[in-house]
Amino acid sequence: MKTFLGTPAVAPRGVGFLRGDETFPRAARKALADPQLRRNLGHATTTIREKSGAVIAELPDWQELREAGRALKAATMSNLVELLEQLETAVTKAGGTVHWAADAHEANRIVTDLVRATGERRVIKVKSMATMEIGLNEALESAGITPVETDLAELIVQLGHDKPSHILVPAIHRNRSEIRELFLREMPGVDPSLTDDPAALAAAARRHLRETFLRTKVAVSGANFGIAETGTLAVVESEGNGRMCLTLPETLITVMGIEKVVPTWRDLEVFLQLLPRASTGERMNPYTSMWTGVTPGDGPQEFHLVLLDNGRSAVLADEVGRQALHCIRCSACLNVCPVYERAGGHAYGSVYPGPIGAVLSPQLTGVADNASLPYASSLCGACFDACPVKIDIPTLLVHLRDAVPHPMAEKVVMAAAARTMSRPRLYRAAQRAARLSRFAGRRGRGLPPPLSGWTSSRDIPAPPPQTFREWWAER
Fold first, then answer.
1. What pLDDT shows up at residue 463?
2. What are the sequence ranges of the domains in the chain?
3. Roughly what angle, to the nearest 10 degrees, separates helices 268-279 and 35-56?
4. Exposed (0-12), middle (13-18) or buried (19+): which is 223, by Cβ within 10 Å?
5. Which residues pair with 257 in a beta bridge?
6. What residues contact residue 112 under an 8 Å CB cut-off, 6+ apart?
């Protein structure tokens, strides 16, 4: 067995698609200037919120389920080494082969070599955040292997030469009319009379993929859960394309982040209730596929499991930050976040957008390399309330902001503020000066450089005519 959990807690630099070319503020400004994008996002997130809220309200023990999910994840992270070893043993015993990938480069090399060994030049893919994270499609294409996304939203992204903008619904930034135009332009053999009716669009995609499903001998998937007790892998989805990929090909390669392991089969009782309600607003996922190794004459006859670290060991080493590894990729935090709803997923520059991306991506890459993401939040706390496993994202954001390199001018200002606030006489004098000066006529318009960064997106409140101490003294 090869493990990374005893290595130094330093995030690798070759981590795949976890950082953008621009900072979040710069990218967000461009997104905010696109009214169609904001309409698409607003409509989609509102719809998902309403559906999710309705099915969650049906469960009188929802809060107890959330606490159970949180406790199970915390216990798993505390025993991750032992559980991964147990998973490897169980998968191997069931006829599978386990590979360990320290980073994106190693994972891509392993998968590419496995596909080459089959002699095939095309693979079908189940929707997978892990393979998007490492840039597997690009790695396969550079090796002369064609990856075909079979999830409808992922297919839309692939055909549009686009990037995903949501964990659950990667094409959430596109509306029906845009998808119709994309299908007519990029999908061979589409009826020119195709309408933008969702059922018609889904049928067109189904016809496009049918032959691919039947003729492709290698599939690549992710995994929502890996059960250490039995070596069973699980994928949950809504369309059935995953079931096709997991049963028809001769070879199945699964890429799974090491944090996706759960101790026992019974632990799925909790997560299979939490995940669909928080993500798609359903009581259960329409398709829940599970497989254990290889079964002669049934399903793929060669199974490989690639366990991916890619910075997760570094996250695990942070006692506060490791909460981010509890994420079950439900996207509930995205659907309630006012920042995400207005800026969209592309502004985050990572395959993990929204609040969870703002705390997970910087830790996987190293905070200094993603320093703007912890500030991509108003700290309203809606994400914490929505998270089915109770990840305290606001606390993590503040924790990571403290870890971001700060300019010297800011350190000097903060030191001066701390000195002033710790001395009552000096603090009273500062209050009087602020009230008298009214910020030299700049009230409501921000501060001059080098303090302008604090007020570039907010107004300074007017100093009160009377301090609390003065009010108290009068009474």
1. 75
2. 24-312, 408-474
3. 140
4. buried
5. 308
6. 139, 140, 143, 145
The answer to whether the beta carbons of residues 256 and 231 sit under 8 Å apart is no
Predicted confidence at residue 337, as pLDDT, reads 97
Q: What is the pLDDT of residues 109-150, one digit of tens each?
A: 999 999 999 999 999 999 999 999 999 999 999 999 999 999
Contact 329, 352 (CB under 8 A): no
Q: Which residue has the tokens 């700049």?
A: 442
For residue 336, give the nearest of 356, 317, 322 by alpha carbon. 356
**DSSP strand pairing (251-257 vs 232-237):** unpaired
**What is the average pLDDT across 184-212?**
92
Q: Which residues contact 40 (CB under 8 A, 6 or more apart)?
A: 172, 173, 174, 175
Into which CATH architecture does domain 24-312 fall? 3-Layer(aba) Sandwich (3.40)
User: Would you state the structure tokens that stand for residue 174, as one six-digit string?
Assistant: 């596109």
**Pairing state of beta strands 225-227 and 232-237?**
antiparallel
Per-residue pLDDT band for 450 (boundaries 50, 70, 90) equals: low
